What we know:
- Keywords: Membrane, Signal, Transmembrane, Transmembrane helix.
- By secondary structure, the protein is an all-alpha fold.
- It has helices spanning 2-17, 42-74, 86-95, 98-108, 125-148, 161-194, 197-210.
- It has a single domain (2-210), classed as Up-down Bundle (Rhopdopsin 7-helix transmembrane proteins).
Amino acid sequence: MGEEISLLLAHIVILCARTPTLGDGAAFCDENATNNPIKISDDQCRGVAVILHYLFGVHFSFLFLEGLNNYSINTFIANGTSLTGRFKNILIGICVPAIPVLLTALTNFKTYIHESTCWCNMNAVNFYAELLPAALICVPAMVLSEATGMGKYKENPKSLPEKRSSAYTSSRGALVVIPLSFAAWLVGMAAVDRTDLSLYSACSILNTILG
């Protein structure tokens, strides 16, 4: 549930404030376009970038935790319940992504944006500060999801067959969801950064498949 909620919130923010012009109503207009929506300040725009950095970090973290949970349930590690417990699981998913976001915001807050994006300046170090943690989370999540269904594991006698079946099915779906989600995030970021209509279209297609 955490990955869905964080992604929904991120999409709401993107729809409203992905560029300095609220609603992005003039994204493809020149500087003389009339009736443009309200513009936000640079610091407000950077605040939006920090929020998006955090929300997508939470999204990918919960995808990893789901992969870990599915693996532990489908093997002998856990008895059908979450490996860390629901409360700890939520705490990890919410708090851990704040670490790279905080470090980036403290050291490179000014370079989060440029004149056409409030998401991420892909020409600055901020891009790598977002890309590398996301990749380091998604790759192990994919490995865990693949490992969950690779063979017949010894069953924990206390585990429930329906729980193992659900974990297996979820892990198969994650093999599609994780790369699609990562690709949609990256393409969407590039679309806003470059104000590229073809990338916007590609992002829409990826999100349609993902949805």
